[in-house]
What does this fold into?
Amino acid sequence: AANPKACHRVLEKLIHHNNPEIRQTLAKNPSLNYKKRIDLLKDVSPLVSSAAVIHYKGLSQVFWQMALNISSVSVRETLVSQSGIPGKFLKRLAKDPSVNVRQRLVLRLRTNRFQQSTKTNKVLVDILSRDPEPKIRADVLNDYRISSQRLRKLIIDPEEEVRLSLAKRIPRIDLHNYQYLAIDDSPKVRLAAAKNMLLFGHAWGTL
It folds into this structure.
């Protein structure tokens, strides 16, 4: 199944093999043509579909669209980590119904491969900063591409977890924004804000 010199007739038979591990190995074969890759992408086994996503090196938007529409959450989690996905599909993944998929997108934005300050990455950070899941908001606010406007909005986030993350944020937010965190209802938030404010040195106590 992994032999790049295997003839197309053999590869065609292996696509319908009853062992999913064989089909998963087949997805790694660089000799597969586009049609066969699509067949593996539509496989009933998420392991095979995920392998088809991981080893796809083309630029077909049809392929990415089909991968995005697969019901398996594990396949979409795999999709999030791949390079070459058009921005419009990444934006859809940022609003995926699965929390795990959206959290994977936060992790993607942290990796060295995706540290560029592109328009798409900035939009992804903005979308995730509005996520209904507090943990995702708390995580993504530490991304350097988040706008100062969004940070100001997150100061009054209803969830303590988010405000605490903001109070601890390095690099720090602007000094005048700490005035709200310094009088937060949560003692944890107030303490974290005070510690970060102290780093401003002479500015401490001027609010």
Summary: The radius of gyration is 23 Å. The chain is about 55% helix and 0% strand. The first helix runs from residue 8 to 15.
